[in-house]
Structure formats: C-alpha cells, structure tokens
C-alpha cells in the first residue's frame, strides 16, 4: 500500500467516525406536492389540453371509456355532458383565474379540496366543485370530483351512466 493510499484510507476512517459529522442534521425528504398546487396546475393547463395527466388511473379509465362510447355513437351520452372543472357547459375563457381554493382535509395519501368557481365575471353565482385527490408516485391526482349544484353530481358516477 502506498503512502497516499494509506493517507486517503486514514482520512476516510476519521471523517466517517467523526461525531461532529455524524450529528449533522439529515435533510428531510422533500414533501409531496401540495394538493392545492396540483389543482392550480390542472386549472392552468391550456383549454384543449388533456385532463388525463391529472387523473388517477381509475378515473382516467372511466373518462376514456366514456369518451370512446361517445365517439362510437356520435351521440351525447347520458352522464358527462358538461365541463366537470367548472360544472358548466359555457364559461368565460379565464374563469379559472377567479377560483378560490380551500383545503378541506388531508392525510398521507388522500386530500379533499373545495374550489369556488365563478363561471362568468358578470354573475354573482359561485359554484363549489369538490375534488378528491390521491397521492400516487409523489403526485396528487384527481380521484373523483363532485358538484354541489342542483342536482348534485359525482364525476365517477356520471362516467358510468348508461342510457
């Protein structure tokens, strides 16, 4: 063993065994993204961009199946015949800039966020859309959506409706 190799080995042993270095605080693992931030990103996507990257695999499958049925028949199928993000068929192009987000609940794997949506700037009516989110692979994804309008609706149920 050469003198340089012995010095490097000795230095490594000293550094590894140093109490001062051993007591250095460990950096915490980065926290998963904020569920509210995930919804802000969802609403900020370009209007015609796919919703699929924001959905859990279960909801993505239901959504894709409903779209395929609609394309096959050429008819508006029962169920989802409106934009679930606003609970509407028509809106201002920039309605999402007026959204107000409120974290309702959150644990390690699930979160619920209520979004107050004002579809038209000239109206006083505000709709509440509630998102159930699931943490999957470090990302918050939309697992279901519910509207409190009359009649109240749940996205996963609408996507499974037949005739």
Instruction: Please report the total strand number as a whole number.
Output: 5
CATH architecture title: Roll
Number of spatially distinct domains: 1
Radius of gyration, in Å, reads 25 Å
What is the CA–CA distance across the termini?
A: 82 Å
CATH topology: Nuclear Transport Factor 2, Chain: A
Q: In one word, what is the shape?
A: globular
CATH class: Alpha Beta
How much helix is in the residues? 25-40%
Give structural notes:
This protein has one domain: Nuclear Transport Factor 2, Chain: A. Mean pLDDT is about 80; it is low at about 10-25. A 5-stranded antiparallel β-sheet has the order 1-2-3-4-5. It has helices spanning about 5-15, 20, 35-45, 55-75, 155-160, and strands at about 100-105, 110-115, 125-135, 140-145, 155. By secondary structure, it is α+β, with helices and mostly antiparallel strands. The protein is globular and about 40 Å long. InterPro entries: DUF3828. Keywords: Signal.
In short:
The protein is α+β, with helices and mostly antiparallel strands. The protein has helices at residues 3-16, 19-22, 35-44, 57-73, 155-159, and strands at 100-106, 110-117, 127-136, 139-147, 153-154. Strand 4 (139-147) and strand 5 (153-154) form a beta hairpin.
């Amino acid at each position: 063993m050469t003198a340089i190799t012995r010095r490097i080995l000795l230095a490594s042993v000293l550094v590894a065994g140093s109490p001062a270095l051993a007591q250095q605080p460990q950096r915490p693992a980065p926290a998963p993204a904020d569920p509210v931030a995930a919804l802000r990103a969802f609403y900020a996507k370009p209007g015609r961009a796919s919703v699929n990257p924001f959905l859990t695999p279960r909801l993505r499958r239901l959504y894709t199946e409903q779209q395929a049925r609609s394309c096959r028949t050429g008819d508006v199928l029962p169920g989802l015949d409106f934009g679930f993000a606003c609970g509407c068929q028509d809106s201002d192009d920039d309605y999402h800039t007026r959204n107000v987000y409120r974290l309702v609940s959150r644990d390690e794997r699930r979160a619920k966020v209520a979004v107050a949506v004002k579809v038209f700037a000239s109206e006083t009516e505000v709709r509440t859309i509630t998102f159930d989110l699931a943490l999957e692979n470090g990302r918050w994804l939309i697992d279901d959506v519910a509207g409190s309008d009359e009649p109240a609706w749940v996205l996963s149920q609408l996507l499974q409706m037949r005739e």
